[in-house]
Amino acid sequence: MNPNRALWEKGDFSRIAASMRESGEEFVHKLGITKGLRVLDLGCGDGTTAIPMAKLGADVLGVDIARNLVAAGHQRAKEAGLTNCLFREGDASHLQGIEDRSFDLVVSIFGAMFAPRPFDVAKEMVRVIRKGGRIVMGNWIPNDPTLVAQILKISSAYSPPPPEGFVSPMTWGVENHVLERFTAAGAKRENISFLKDSFTFRWPGGPSELLDAFRNFYGPTMNAFEAAGKTNRANDLAKELGELFTLQNQSPNKFMTSIPATFLRVTVIAP
Ligand SMILES: C[S@@+](CC[C@H](N)C(=O)[O-])C[C@H]1O[C@@H](n2cnc3c(N)ncnc32)[C@H](O)[C@@H]1O
Fold it and tell me: If you average pLDDT over residues 170-187, what whole number do you get?
């Protein structure tokens, strides 16, 4: 089994995505989606951004490595009555069956960053976008003090070292790495821009309940707890993450959680 796929088919990312829907819609509204725009959503999960883009009239193809999320996205699109939002299994490092220059916009929100071989990922994104089209990525930033970067950082301290040659997905949150990857794929430096943006995780329960969802359904956190359990440190990990979720929560209502997390928004105008 491909370990990249196994990680994301583990648990059920839909349960986490439920806390990201509003921010997904807000993000999509900033993209200038127009009717008939051909959009590829890479690492689309169950459609947090794909579905709102289709609702705005774009023709969307969502590609994801996790078969359970492709099925969930398909079901959500069907329930929304959308015929312009398709989901397909695929790997962002090697987009089989997708023709060159076939999209106006490629979007990847915390998706393609998790694929192996980042230079291949950049090359594939540039290959499938039309000349002058846009690639927009949202990437978590290493060592950022907000939620996701901290979850991943804390979790790594409880996990075995990654295999040799492993390139951390978080390197997609570092401008120099992004520049290196897209210029190697043929993009021009002056057509690559960056800004900091934010996604808010909203949950209808306290922060410890949101943490429970991560512990039970988010592959990377599930793996961290499994690894911590092997060294009898699962309680320490739970304590550290519990403190993090509580500290970051900005909701004044104790039955609600609202945690903003900063990411790097990358825009590339295709060569
Ligand atoms: C953090 S989730 C984000 C999902 C979605 N974009 C969202 O905002 O809800 C990461 C997604 O990337 C997908 N993914 C990871 N590696 C991938 C790869 N090599 N190719 C395509 N998708 C991948 C995972 O299956 C998962 O759906």
Answer: 98
